[in-house]
Specification:
With about 350 residues, the chain is of the alpha+beta class. Helix content is about 40%, strand content about 15%. Helix 1 packs across helix 5. This is DNA-directed DNA polymerase.
C-alpha cells in the first residue's frame, strides 16, 4: 500500500461507503460520514505546545502551511475544515485534534482490512502475518505455484550468481538527434525523410519472471562437459539452464555499429587515463582541478574485450549472434529450470487488468 492515505481512501470510496465498516461504526450519521470520508488536513507546524489545544477557534489558513512539503492548503480544504469544526461544535483545538486522529485511524483500518480481505481471497494468506509487501508476495508465489525450490547452500555458487547480476543500463548515448519529419514544422523536402521513434518494453519485469527460472539440481560442469558444450543448441525453454563464465572478444568491425549501445555491460571503475579528451576538458572546466574524481564503480557498456564475464546462457547466445566471440570458457554452472513463476505473474496481471484504480 505504497500510496498516501488520501489516495487509498479515494480508491476505496469508488463503491461509496460499502467497505468502510469501522469508519461507519465511528460515524453512524451518513451526513457526517460523507463529510469526513477523505484525508483531512491538520496544522502540524502550528501546534508547538499543549497550550494550543485550548484555543477555541480554528487557526487561520496560514497556520496550515506545511513546511515539510513547502505548501499551503487550498481554500477549498480550509473551508472544509471550517465546516467540520462547525458540524461537530468543536470546543477547542484539542477536540479538533482528536477527531483528526480518529478519522485517520479508522480510515486506515478500513483500507488495510480491505487489503487483508483481498490477500486472503487471492492467495489464502493473511497480510498482517507479514512485515513487508515483498515478503507477502514471495510467500504468495510459492503457495500458488507449489514449486519446490532447492536451497542454494554453496557460497561459491551463490557468489557466482551474484557476480552475474548487474542491474540495468540507464544513460543517454546520443546527445542530439534531429528528424526530418514531413508531419511537423521545419520539414525540408530536399532532404531524406527521417524520424525519431520512442520504444518501451511493456511488462518488462512480468515477462522476465515468466521465463524459465532456476529450481535446483545445480552443479558445475567438468572439463570434458565444458569442451563438448554447445551454446547454440540449447533452447530458451530447455529443462536445463546455464550460467557461464567466459572471456569475450569484441571484434573491431562491430565497434562503429555498436558504439551507441555496446553489448555485455560490466561494472567498471574508470581511471583518469581512460577518460576521453572531451571528458577531461569537462572535468577541468567544471571543477578547475580542485575536486577529486569519485572512486566509484559504475555499470558501463563498453567496446572492450571481457575477462571472466559471468552471464546467463540466453544473454550469451544474443551476444554471439550479434558478433561477439567467446575466446575461453572458465566455468559453467548447470541447473534445472522451469517457468514456475508464470502462473503467479499471469494471475496478478489479470487482476491488475480488472482493477478500477492503480492500487
Amino acid at each position: 500500500m505504497s500510496e498516501s492515505l488520501e489516495r487509498l481512501v479515494e480508491n476505496l470510496a469508488i463503491d461509496g461507503l460499502t467497505h468502510f465498516h469501522h469508519f461507519r461504526k465511528a460515524f453512524p450519521s451518513e451526513e457526517v460520514s460523507k463529510l469526513l470520508l477523505r484525508k483531512n488536513v491538520y496544522c502540524y507546524d502550528y501546534v508547538t505546545n499543549h497550550d494550543k489545544f485550548q484555543e477555541t477557534s480554528l487557526p487561520p489558513k496560514e497556520a496550515f502551511y506545511n513546511r515539510l512539503k513547502r505548501e499551503d492548503i487550498s481554500e477549498q480544504d480550509y473551508r472544509h475544515e471550517l465546516k467540520v469544526w462547525d458540524t461537530f461544535s468543536m470546543s477547542n483545538l484539542g477536540s479538533y485534534h482528536d477527531l483528526y486522529l480518529l478519522t485517520d485511524v479508522v480510515l486506515l483500518t478500513d483500507v488495510f482490512e480491505r487489503f487483508r480481505n483481498m490477500t486472503t481471497d487471492y492467495y489464502e494468506l493473511h497480510a498482517s502475518h507479514f512485515y513487508t509487501a515483498p515478503g507477502l508476495a514471495w510467500q504468495a508465489a510459492l503457495k500458488m505455484t507449489g514449486v519446490n525450490l532447492e536451497l542454494l547452500t554453496s557460497p561459491d555458487m551463490y557468489n557466482f550468481f551474484e557476480l552475474g547480476c548487474r542491474g540495468g543500463i540507464s544513460m543517454i548515448s546520443k546527445k542530439y538527434a534531429k528528424a526530418n519529419n514531413k508531419y511537423i514544422d521545419g520539414y525540408d523536402d530536399a532532404k531524406q525523410n527521417s524520424y525519431i521513434m520512442y520504444y518501451d518494453a511493456n511488462n518488462l519485469y512480468g515477462w522476465a519472471m515468466s521465463q524459465p527460472l532456476p529450481t535446483g539440481l545445480m552443479c558445475w560442469l567438468d572439463e570434458d562437459e565444458i569442451k563438448s558444450f554447445n551454446l547454440q543448441n540449447i533452447s530458451t525453454d530447455a529443462d536445463k539452464g546455464y550460467m557461464l563464465e567466459v572471456d569475450l572478444e569484441y571484434p573491431h568491425d562491430l565497434h562503429d555499429s555498436h558504439n551507441s549501445y555496446p553489448l555485455a555491460p560490466s561494472h567498471k571503475n574508470v581511471q583518469d587515463d581512460e577518460l576521453s579528451s572531451y571528458s577531461k576538458f569537462l572535468y577541468r572546466d567544471l571543477y578547475d582541478g580542485h575536486r577529486k574524481r569519485p572512486n566509484t564503480t559504475k555499470l558501463i557498456p563498453t567496446l572492450e574485450n571481457k575477462k571472466n564475464y559471468i552471464t546467463h546462457y540466453c544473454n550469451l547466445q544474443l551476444y554471439t549472434n550479434l558478433g561477439m566471440k567467446i575466446t575461453k570458457v572458465h566455468r559453467i554452472l548447470e541447473f534445472h529450470q522451469s517457468p514456475w513463476l508464470a502462473t503467479y505473474i499471469q494471475f496478478n496481471t489479470s487482476r491488475r487488468q480488472e482493477a478500477r484504480n492503480d492500487f
